[in-house]
Specification:
- The complex is a heterodimer of chains A (about 375) and B (about 290).
- Chain A has about 375 residues and is α+β, with helices and mostly antiparallel strands.
- Chain A folds into 2 domains: about 240 residues, P-loop containing nucleotide triphosphate hydrolases (Rossmann fold); about 120 residues, OB fold (Dihydrolipoamide Acetyltransferase, E2P), CATH 2.40.50.
- In chain A, strands 6-7-8-3-9-10 form a 6-stranded mixed beta sheet, with helices on both faces. In chain A, strands 13-12-11-14-20 form a 5-stranded antiparallel beta sheet.
- In chain A, helix 3 packs across helix 4.
- Chain B is mainly α.
- Chain B folds into 2 domains: about 55 residues, no CATH class; about 220 residues, MetI-like fold.
- In chain B, strands 1-2 form a two-stranded antiparallel ribbon.
- In chain B, about 30% of the residues are buried.
- At the A-B interface, strand 6 and helix 2 of A face helix 7 and helix 8 of B.
Chain lengths: ~375, ~290
């Protein structure tokens, strides 16, 4: 009912291509996060769904209906802007009421959308205010509200028309860290209550990982990977996704794939270690990975928590140890490449300059093609 | 103790040194003439300016209630009514039209704003080319005619409207550009059409700008002189003699007393009108953050 489908959607501003042939299916009731660095095109994609940007090429559908030429107000979507965009001269109540005044609203049980009566509007305003804890603030103007309260007014204004899809453009970026964490939980709860499609744009991977049902990673206007947070974390499809998701980021080091005694290995510097059977990974994903030839140059990706200091085959030298309280990060050098290892903070940390031996958990080694940056295993 | 006193003296000397230039300028060009005005208003002079006598506030009373002043006040008042609403509306329309991301829009913005660069005298002379009753391009447009006492004031007012368009346009445009684009987009998503968006969202958000312009344009209109002098010389039959024009004409020593009183009267009226505008409009102006 409220799926959003991008089919080859492209947006060009003169010479610049902001969104490049985006094909993405956002399912009904899911919390889809569009994640990517600044300027990657995620906000432009969101604005195209809202109807604030004209689509250059491709087809956009909402709820099965092609909406390329449908006006913003007739698309049955609501948007929460990064700066909230509250009307400063209107009270909170009037701000919340504003989508109901001029738009035709879908009413449950009725086929055609229509204008609401005054009492219906008041009822919805009260309901939205109750949901977001704004009942005591209805008479105030935005200038008299805190940042968090303003954001809730923006949310109330979005939910009051009960749209098919909620669009959010980095709504947490103007909040302080503590409020951000709290609001994340509230938004997840809101999504659960409303059972409606949420499309959420952010550059913060923590927000994406904690809130999304699926994440779509975008850079340079192109979709890199779409999947559940766990899938994107555990099996990044290319180097960009591998390095973008995860904090501290995945270690990526050039190496060589070698077949040693019939088993797949990777040569990293002077050390060689076993990686998981390619057949094994086939079992996990259900797709056959093309066999990698012996001697292929690869980029090896291992997450900091999957490297272990002990008596493994990789020789490295400790540069420094960062202590974070609950864990420590040991930064090492493997033949000129810097690598970060996460360790619990118990026990004696390695000394600066100490020579250590590392091993990697075979199932958690990711191999990428150095030229195409695509995943190989 | 000595050090602190010494520093205080230094501060005072520095303060005086910094304030002195402004004080001298204000004193010479504002406070002294004001004082002279009041002085002249309290005295009457003979034709040659060789003798004067004190007459006190009775001169004030006579002049301010006399027909010369009240005629001038009516004409100035009409002038305000002709120039201010029309000037504001046209300025807003132009600013809205020019506030777009279109190719070449800067050229139009420059053209619309250009009248701000000309002086009143130059602009009036240029306008005269258009409505000169003998050879002007629009000499046959009867409702503006400068040779008809009933319509001459409108002709002069129109020249003012045109001249002030540049200033009004620039200031309203600046106000429009200060409205965050996201608010316009939110209004679009809320289903507001262009007209509704303009009156319900844009106008309230530029209301401080509009109020400022309203006050400034009224003050300009009360001060109208050069336009009158160049276009009609006060005629025909004194129908365009604004207050300032009358004050200007009272420069002979015999009339300096009455002229001064009229000037003070104009000052008082402008002050009252401006205050009234503030009080009435202030409640409806929204100062956002």
């Amino acid at each position: 009912m409220s799926e959003v489908n991008f089919e080859g959607v492209t947006k060009r501003f003169g010479e610049v291509t902001a969104v490049d042939h985006l094909t993405l299916d956002i399912k009904d009731e899911e919390f889809m996060v569009l994640l990517g660095p600044s300027g990657c095109g995620k906000t432009t994609a969101l604005r195209m769904v809202a109807g604030l940007e004209v689509i250059t090429e491709g087809t956009l559908s909402i709820g099965g209906r092609v909406v390329n030429d449908v006006e913003a107000k007739d698309r049955d979507v609501s948007m929460v802007f990064q700066s909230y965009a509250l009307y400063p001269h209107m009270t909170v109540a009037k701000n919340i009421e504003s989508p109901l005044v001029a738009r035709k609203i879908h009413v449950e049980g009725e086929a055609e959308p229509r204008k609401l009566t005054s009492s219906e509007r008041q009822q919805r305003i009260a309901e939205a205010a109750r949901t977001l804890g704004l009942t005591d603030l209805l008479g105030r103007k935005p200038a008299a509200l805190s940042g968090g309260q303003r954001q809730r007014v923006a949310l109330a204004r979005a939910i009051v028309s009960r749209p098919s899809a909620f669009l959010m453009d980095e709504p947490l970026s103007n909040l302080d860290a503590k409020l951000r964490a709290q609001t994340r939980l509230e938004l997840v709860e809101l999504h659960r209550r409303l059972a409606t499609t949420f499309i959420y744009v952010t550059h913060d991977q923590v927000e994406a990982m904690t809130m999304a049902t699926r994440i779509a990673i975008i850079t340079d206007g192109r979709l890199q990977q779409v999947g559940a947070p766990q899938a994107v974390y555990e099996r990044p499809q290319n180097l960009f996704v591998a390095r973008f998701i995860g904090s501290p980021p995945m270690n990526t080091v050039p190496g060589t794939f070698v077949v040693d005694a019939g088993e797949p290995h990777v040569q990293l510097g002077s050390g060689r270690f076993r990686v998981a059977d390619l057949a094994g990974t086939e079992r996990l994903t259900g797709t056959a990975s093309a066999a990698i030839a012996d001697g292929t140059k690869v980029v090896v990706g291992v997450r900091p928590e999957h490297l272990v200091i002990g008596d493994g085959p990789i020789k490295a030298q400790v540069i420094t140890v960062e202590w974070l309280g609950h864990e420590r990060h040991v930064i090492c050098d493997i033949d000129g490449e810097k690598v970060v290892i996460r360790q619990p903070s118990e026990g004696q940390p390695p000394a600066d300059g100490e020579l250590v031996r590392l091993s990697a958990i075979p199932d958690e080694v990711h191999l990428f093609d150095p030229t195409t940056t695509d995943r190989l295993n | 103790m000595k050090g602190r006193a010494g520093r205080r003296v230094k501060d005072i000397v520095l303060a005086i040194a910094i304030l002195l230039p402004s004080a001298i300028i204000f004193g010479t060009f504002f406070f002294y003439p004001l004082y002279r005005l009041v002085y002249l208003g309290l005295h009457q002079q003979n034709r040659f300016g060789t003798a004067e006598r004190y007459v006190g506030f009775s001169q004030f009373k006579d002049v301010l209630t006399g027909s010369n002043f009240t005629d001038g006040l009516v004409i100035s008042g009409k002038y305000v009514l002709f120039t201010v609403p029309l000037g504001l509306v046209l300025g807003i329309l132009l600013a809205v039209a020019a506030n777009r991301q279109l190719r070449g829009i800067k050229a139009f913005q420059t053209i619309f704003a250009s009248t701000v660069a000309s002086s009143v005298a130059v602009a009036s002379v240029v306008f005269f080319v258009l409505i000169n009753p003998q050879v002007g391009y629009f000499k046959d447009v009867s409702w503006l005619s400068l040779s008809n006492p009933d319509t001459a004031l409108r002709g002069v007012a129109l020249s003012s409207v045109w001249q002030n368009l540049g200033l009004t346009f620039i200031i309203v445009l600046a106000g429009l550009q200060a409205v965050p684009e996201e608010i316009n987009e939110a209004a679009t998503l809320d289903g507001y059409g262009a007209l509704r968006r303009f009156f319900r969202i844009t106008v309230p958000l530029i209301s401080p700008t509009l109020m400022f312009l309203g006050v400034v344009l009224v003050i300009f209109a009360f001060q109208a002189f050069a336009q009158v002098d160049i276009l009609t010389g006060g005629g025909p039959a004194g129908s365009t003699e604004t207050l300032v024009f009358k004050i200007f004409n009272s420069q002979q020593p015999l009339n300096q007393g009455t002229g001064s009183v009229m000037a003070i009267g104009l000052f008082g009226i402008t002050l009252v009108v401006s205050l009234a505008q503030f009080l009435i409009l202030e409640r409806r102006v929204h100062y956002g953050n």
